[in-house]
Request: fold
Amino acid sequence: MTPPLSLPNRTALSVNVNKVALVRNTRHLGIPSVTRAAELCLQAGAQGITVHPRPDERHIRGQDVYELATLMKAWPDREYNIEGNPSQNLMDFIRQVRPHQATFVPDSEDQFTSDHGWSFPQDAERLAPLVAECRALGVRVSLFMDPVPEQMAAARAVGADRVELYTEPYAAAWGMPQQSAEIKRYAAAAQAALDAGLGVNAGHDLNRDNLATFVREVPCVLEVSIGHALIADALELGYAATVQAYLACINDGHSAARAHNS
Reply:
């Protein structure tokens, strides 16, 4: 049985370094270094590193997964999250590396980027034994999910520890008339997850503009995984300043939430 949730004072920032690997793979020089990027982000205060190694190795390669696992041993207070489809190549990495967290994502092999979550009851039968295997290895499992409150109890029923709310619809609505309705959808889904005994993660297209509001409005977000926007910002600001800016957004969101609730 999963132990009771221990909610942190601050949402953890896990930096997805896939886009660093994407740039590196355009040449055969080994630069920019994925492990160096991860190290600089950790030094700047990021609480974790995320990778999504796809079968075609378009960005993160198998060797990156293992080199990052070695790096993370020097940061025992930080977390390593490996994402992917457990029906493809993910489980081999989980069995060998045993990261802190495995995030199951229902991507097809040729999918451009993650764009939807798991569905229940359709996916329950194939997910349950894979979730059980991860947990037997001591690996926490998070399921990539659309913000549908009615799906959260089913995610918990297959043994998941957390859900990662797919936030692209929220990001797309930012600054639009539907922004308020979208954030309410995510708040309701997060509350349903909490009620079911799940932890709540979030990710996809979160950035310096929309992150603070998300953290303020969505209850008890344990972790945000951010890659594309963060790495794009780092091209202009550098890794350290960028990570610190995202951590400031998270702090601003929590401060606003506390002020609202006081």
